[in-house]
Amino acid sequence: MPVVTQITQQKRSPNRRNVFLDGAFAFGCNVNVIARFRLRQGLALTTEQVQQIQQGEIRQECLDYALRLLQMRAHSRAELLKKLQRREYGSTVSGTVLDDLVRLGYLDDARLANERAQCAASTKHQGRRRAYLELMRAGINADTANRALDEVYGTLDVTDSARQFALKQLPRLLRLQPQVARRRLAGMLQRRGFTYEQIKPIVDELLNTLDDEPPADDNL
Predict the structure, then answer these.
(1) Is residue 218 part of a domain?
(2) Which of 104, 120, 145 is the last residue of a domain?
(3) Which residues are within 8 A (CB) of 96 and not within 5 positions of it... i.e. 6 or more apart?
(4) What confidence tens digit (pLDDT) does each residue in 72-110 have?
(5) Which one of 3, 33, 168, 176 has the fewest CB atoms closer than 10 angstroms to its CB?
(6) Structural domain for 119, as ranges
(7) Domain total for the chain?
């Protein structure tokens, strides 16, 4: 069996080590892999153990890459899996890493769905339907998405949210012909995921006064 004869720090990567077996360089690996497999000088390794260490190194690389992605922004499990697959990490390695991230609390689809639902409702002024589509695009499953949306939109004054968005558009709309303004505002609100029952009162409230007044300008 080959014996570990030397373990040295890599010059450009302080957290990586070069492992020598029987006096010859064998492989490089992360310090976490060194610790996990308790590698030390004088340790004899079977061929199977060497393969396990190399697999452990791939898993560590996968984990480090996933953590870098999560530092940039929160991801759903499905989003993260897709990005790991682009780097050609195997399904077994990717699945194990994702399970570890869930267990450690770094990956939580329910929490992410709630945060994005809150943002959709309060910051983006989106209706539930648009928020649901955004969660689907993020890879959140339907049950998790609906639970988050029920919690957020169940306590939200959706009409007021639609009104706030509409008020921001009002200065531009007041320059249009009344029917054009109504059609534009209704379309904007519909694209943001509000229903007809939520849209009509807002359009009536903000634009009914235009029906009897000439527009200041017919151009945006």
Answers:
(1) no
(2) 104
(3) 59
(4) 999 999 999 999 999 989 899 999 999 999 999 999 999
(5) 168
(6) 109-153
(7) 3
